[in-house]
Predict the 3D structure of the following.
Amino acid sequence: RTPKVETFDTRALQQLDSAHFLHPFTDHAALRDKGARVIVRGQGVYLWDSDGHQIIDGMSGLWCVNAGYGRTSISEAVYRQMETLPFYNSFFNTTNVPAVRLAAELVALAPPQFSHVFFTGSGSEANDTVVRMVRRYWDILGQPERQVIISRRNAYHGSTMAGASLGGMPGMHAQGGLPIPGIRHIGQPNYLEAGQGMSENAFGLVAAGWLEEEILAVGPDKVAAFIGEPVQGAGGVVIPPATYWPEVQRICDKYDILLIADEVICGFGRLGTWFGCELMGFKPDLISFAKGVTSGYVPLGGVLIGKRVAHALLEKGGDFNHGFTYSGHPVACAAALENLRILVDERLVEKVALDTGPHLKAAFNELATHPLVGHAESCGMVAGLNLVRVKGASMHECVPFERALQVGMLCRGHMFELGVIMRAVGDRMIVAPPLVMTRAEIDEMAARIWDCLDLTL
Ligand code: PLP
């Protein structure tokens, strides 16, 4: 079906936008003169702006449009559900058909230790839920002093009070009275930054050891849980060494601490497995998810609950006094069911593992030969370029961080004009394309990134 082509008055839209729309994470004073880019349409891996420019979306929107744009079967599923039952809540002894079916489908797709799902409207709400859930769990078990949740610096876990507190972004903690009490942060497993003089695997053990140091500093009987993204996304695509997560698991087991995977980005095939923990070799007690569960077509998030926590909450906990009007929203769940059907039927997760993921790696290794790039890494359908390395120097010798930031910002300035969206995060340029991106489209994206780097030289 070809969507009707509308024309837009870009300047008028930008003026309205500037007058009334307060955007997330945006410096409005800096944006005012040039105006926001108005995105009007999407198909496959491409977007179009209000002036008719075609852009290849290297970021899947915000790491979420895994099934690509223009999936009419999702819009039809949403339409049908809206006609049948647009809303009913799941509070007070009621449920609805898409929410029941989706909970069962998610448990079937998740690793075997999971039995239940709690639905939210977003990833931030999922992580807020996790904070209350793990503290409630230890209450039920008669250990209410287990309150502390350990996370990592530069992690991103959302923008709500608890989500942003779990996150370790200094810019976020500087505003709004964060973090909330009982959240501690350790270093991230960033080999390029902190692994000098060590093999990657040796560094993985050292970085996991920071968790044990923190547990001992806090007191093991006060620690409730550790949370981490299998591969840190918004913090700059930080791919941990293979030794890291198994060692984190060993430490959590040793001190009987709950292990939480924030799979808001890594879940639903991004790394070439259904969940990132499967690739990274650990077995979390809880998984927070969002984004790829509906490919972003309708907001939905949630927490997958392992049997250990589910048993306490369901059998011994009475009411869990927590929930959102839109927990188990039937329309969002209908969108998720159709989206998951697409991922399964089109074998998109296997494709990432065996075909497009390796192709993206090869394309990024090629980009690493550009004079502005020192190092490239990728995992499934996420990839990053380090802009700061000195050509020919060791991986750990950087030109100043400020220069990398400057390069990143310049690149960002050129991206839209060259028709590609990627993100500048600190000293890295990163992508997380839709899982449907073909080899030819990966090559096209990489060529546009190369041109963008060239213009920045
Ligand atoms: N967790 C991770 C790892 C994320 O990347 C994000 C969003 O980017 C969130 C949580 C928050 O999700 P949301 O923006 O849906 O609240």
